[in-house]
Amino acid sequence: MELSEIYSQNFFGAVSDFSPKISFEIFPPKGNDISKLYEELRKLKRFKPVLVSLTYGANGGANRFSNEDLKSIRDLEFNLMPHFTCVSALKDEIEKHIISIENLGIENILALRGDIPNYINPEELDFKHADELVEFIKEKTTLSIGVAGYPEGHIECDNIHKDIEYLKRKIDKGASAIFTQLFFDNEKFYHFTECVRKAGIQTPIIAGIMPVRNTVQIEKMTSMARITIPEKLKKMLVKFPDDTKKIGSEFSISQCLDLIDYGIDGLHFFTLNHSDQVSEILENIL
């Protein structure tokens, strides 16, 4: 099922007709032994996700799901949305890959520029921006395309309105849904949504949720991206360092309930390949 159909007003894919549309992100485990990941996905299946996204070559790396992996995960009856980053690939390689994705019967793809490794000269890239990749995918395939949005702006862009201009280019070239970077401050997300709509973008905006699991995770994410940690959450993590996971779950439950009241198009959980914490959160919000 394509993104435009998934996030249409008349389609409900979660536990009940009054629940938000739920999706999950997973990544290739170290060593590419995905038997444990299959088990984690089976545990999440009861929440009837509208799709599962699969990361690809993060930070310029080559660790990714093979076509055989994609087939196996699809056989678990999940609607898949593989990621694709373009910074480390040539046009011919990209064309070959996206056509292979389509030939597997997969209908959706998340088009990303990706993080540019230090050893690459940006001027030598076939694709310098994600909107160019979106346009290329539309020319070469019938895949439905998701793109990234940044509630507090991309870390390389100092102006949220300029960042939304870049987002509009991706939409104008054929993207069907916006999946946001993780965020913890809902007010930042609401402001972002308001600015996106004022810019004339009516594409569904899916909120990226990453439950806090440990302090190392938080430090890593905030060093790589523009993400505000609310003072209340900061204080709780400092005051109760041994209860990080519990605090993270409780915060995510409150955050998601507020987003649902707002009328969110969907909730996209960055699972970190763990079903336990995400399951606990979903049991409390659905």
Folded structure, characterized:
There is one protein chain. Helices cover 42% and strands 14% of the residues. The chain is α/β, with parallel strands linked by helices. It has a single domain (3-285), classed as TIM Barrel (Alpha-Beta Barrel). The protein has an 8-stranded parallel barrel with strand order 1-2-3-4-5-6-7-8, surrounded by 5 helices. Helix 5 packs parallel to helix 6 (160-172).
Short description:
By secondary structure, this protein is α/β, with parallel strands linked by helices.
End-to-end separation in angstroms reads 23 Å
What average pLDDT do the residues reach? 89
How many domains would you count in the coordinates?
1
Oligomer: single chain
The total beta strand count reads: 8
> So what's the CATH class?
Alpha Beta
What's the layout of helices and strands?
Elements: H1 3-6, E1 22-26, H2 35-44, E2 51-54, H3 67-74, E3 80-85, H4 91-103, E4 108-112, H5 130-140, E5 144-149, H6 160-172, E6 177-182, H7 186-198, E7 205-209, H8 215-224, H9 231-239, H10 244-262, E8 267-270, H11 275-285
Parallel strand pairs: 1-2, 1-8, 2-3, 3-4, 4-5, 5-6, 6-7, 7-8
Helix pairs in contact: 2-11, 5-6, 10-11
